[in-house]
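anyone seen this seq b4? input:
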Amino acid sequence: MQITPLDIRNKTFRKGMRGYQCEEVEKFLESVSAEFESAYAENFELKEKLNGLETEISHYRQIENTLQQTLVLAQQTAEEVKEVARHEAALLLREAEQNKLAKVSEAQEKWEEIQEEIQGLSRKRDLLRTQLKSFLLAHLDLETLQERDEGIA
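predicted toks r here
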């Protein structure tokens, strides 16, 4: 049973022969009632405040949970972004390596073509030299023959 300030104010006592002074008891009961009313009101306010604070704590716990979930999600997203970046970097490296190999192969083929062209030009030069030498020798022989013919005639 919970006693209220009104219960204290309305309490009546039986009167006996040698009982307490009614006025003193009533003053004391009034004083106790006022104190109790003050304590009762303070208790009620504190309970209300406690309920408000518990609601606020619940709200902050929800915010904390949301922030923790957000942090975990951000960490997962960061890891995924890093993994995608690593994957893209590996792809770019592979592509660059393939491009390098293709260019090296292309340069090798070009070098071989130039070498073949140089050899072809070198053979043509040798052939031209031989032809020119033969031509000059033939003219020289012809000149020599003409001089003999003129010397005889």
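Helices lie at 5-10, 22-152. The chain has a mean pLDDT of 91. kinda curious what u guys think
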